[in-house]
Amino acid sequence: MPTTSEVRALQRARLTAVGLGALREGDGADLPAVVRGLGAVQAQEPHSSAWGLAQRLTAPVTLAGVQAALAEGTVLRTHVLRPTWHYVTPEDLAPLMTATAPRVRRAMLSAERPRGFDHALLPRRHGVIADALAGGPLTRKEIGAVLAEAEGEPLDAWHLGQVMMHAELDLLVASGPMRGKQPTYRLLPEQKTWDEEAARVHLARAYVRGHGPCRAEDVAWWGTLTKGAARAAVADAGLTRHEVAGLTLWADGDLPDPAPPGTVRLLSVYDELFCHDFKGWPALTRLAMPSRWLYTGLVVVDGMIAGGWARVLKTRSVEITVELTDEPTAAVWASLEAEAARYGAFCELEPVLRRGAVGKGTIG
Hints:
By secondary structure, this protein is α+β, with helices and mostly antiparallel strands. The chain has helices spanning 4-17, 31-38, 46-54, 63-72, 90-112, 122-133, 140-151, 157-169, 196-211, 216-223, 227-235, 330-347, and strands spanning 41-42, 76-80, 84-88, 138-139, 173-175, 184-187, 240-244, 247-251, 264-267, 297-301, 304-313, 317-324, 350-355.
C-alpha cells in the first residue's frame, strides 16, 4: 500500500484536478466551466452542492448566482450517472445520459416490477408532459395535475416520480428555474444522438480529466458502468497511464501539479473529490471517520480528511462548526477562517466560526 506521504501527494494532485487547488479566476459566468471541467457534479443537496460549485472560483459567487445559472439553463440539474441529482452542462448531458441510461433503467426495474409500473404508457404520458412544458417550466405538482386531467385520475407520488425519471433519461426534460422554494422542469431541445460506445469514451475522458489521477474502477463507479466497459472506455479515451505507489492510475496527460501544501477546504457533502470507488483506494484519514460525518461537509487538509463541519443559517449570520481530528496549527486555523469567510460571502451572511461536535443530520 502507498505510504502516507505518497497518498498525500496523490491527493494534492487530485485537489488540483477537481478545481480545489489554485482556484479559478472569475465570476458567476464561469460556473458552467466549473461543471464542464468535472463532467458532472453531484447535486442532491441544492444548497451544499451550489457551494461546491461556487467555492471553486477565486471569489465565490452567491447561492443566488448558482440559481441564476440554473434558471438560464447554462447549468442543468437532472438525474444522471448512478443515478442521482447532478449538475451538468447542456453539451455533456446527451453523452453522459446515453452512456449510463441503459444500466439505470435495468436497475429501476427491480422497484417497478412489483408495483406494476406500465412502461407502455410512457410515450403518451411524455407527450402530455411535452405539450404542457411547451408553455414554460412547471413544478412536479403542476405536471401531476396536467397528467391527472389527461388520464382522469391522479398518479401517486411514486409513479409520478418514475414517470419524470424516465422523462429525464429520455432527454425530454431537465431542471428549470426555481419557483420560490419549488424546483421546476423545463422542456429540453432535441438532443444529438450518441453511439453508446462513443458516449462511454466521452464519459471516461470527462471523469479522468476532472478527477484524475484515478483508476478505471473509479470511472466504473462514477458512471454506472461495468468494470470491463470502463476499462475499454479508458483505453480508447486517449488518456495517459501512470504507475504510482503500486496503483495503476490514469490522467489527461501528465499528473496535475499538486495543490499548494497546507491547502484547506470546507467541502460540500458528496463533493466530487470523494466521488470514486473507495475499494482499493488508500485511506484518506489515519483515524476512523465518525459515521455522523457522512451527514456533514468534510474538512480536508492537503486532500486528506481532517474533520467534519456543519452550518446553521441565521437571519444575519451563518454559524459554522468544525470538528477536527487534530489540534489545528495556526496556519490551518487561519485557512479555516479564510474558507469560512468565503462561505459567508456565498451565503451573503456574516460567518461565525467555532470548534465543537458536529451533530448527525446537519448538512455542511
